[in-house]
Amino acid sequence: MTSREPRLEPVPIAQLRPTQITVGFREVAEKRHHWRKVAPRNAPEFLRHHMVPVILGPKERHYLIDHHHLALALHEEGVEQVLVTVVADLRAVHKDSFWVVLDDRRWCHPYDAKGRRCGFEEIPPSIADLEDDPFRSLAGELRRAGGYAKDITPYSEFLWADFLRRHLKRKDIATSFKVALGKALKLAKGEEAAYLPGWCGKVKE
Q1: Which of these, 80, 84, 68, lies nearest to 31 by C-alpha position?
Q2: Is the N or C terminus of the chain more exposed, i.e. has fewer CB atoms within 10 Å?
């Protein structure tokens, strides 16, 4: 039921079903830029080393549970197919229970660009329909800048995005991403962020 088994046959990106509502478009753009650098000389090798994890669900559909940014970036770059790794086979689960099972196992993230919990029906049916959350882009860049450590907690970047959303304004990111990142770095080291996964601030004696 939960075994990981590589599926070496390619799956069309257009047929992948998201399990979240948003991504950070800035992060998608960075992945597109990286793809353009590696594709001319190493595209097949890159794709072999970047299989995406999916749940096999009702009607044989593939539900993407990670690497949404990469999938969207490749889709926008005209790549038609990716290799997948099946994390769980849930084809036998009734469609009315499918999303409940995913939610229970933390395989979906039904939150919008304002951090609000939404109904499962609001999760888009296509990678191309994912919405932008600038705070998710900021959270991703914050980690790469050393603001917090990579962590295995599911959707840890979204937890950080939600934290940043409560302290910064969307227009701060739009006006100057660099300035917003500087503010985020200071916030990330504070004790108020200590509950977040990967926090690496100083603990007061």
Answers
A1: 68
A2: C
